[in-house]
Amino acid sequence: MVRLPLTPEEIERGQRLGALLRRARGERSMLDIALAARVSPETLRKIETGRVATPAFPTIAAIADVLGLSLDAVWAEMRRAERVVEGVGTARRSPERLAS
Known about the structure:
It contains six helices and no strands. By secondary structure, the chain is mainly α. It is globular.
C-alpha cells in the first residue's frame, strides 16, 4: 500500500497530539501507559514524538482513556492551532451569517 506524503498541517497536528499526550502522561512511565492502553510502547513513543502523525482513532481513544483525557479535549487541542491559522487574514463567516 502506498501512503501519500503528509501535509505540513498533518505533521504539525501530529506534533501537537504528541505534546498533549506527553503532558497528560506526566511522570508516569511510557511503558505503563502503553500496556494499559494495549498498544506497544514503540507505538506510543512514535506518537509522542510526532513520528506517527496520523495514528488510528482506536489507538488514540485507548491512550486518551488511560490518560483520563476526553476525546473532545484531544480534538479541541488538535483544532486549536488550525483555527488560529484559519482566522489570520481571512474573513470567516459564521453559519448564521451565511443563512441571511
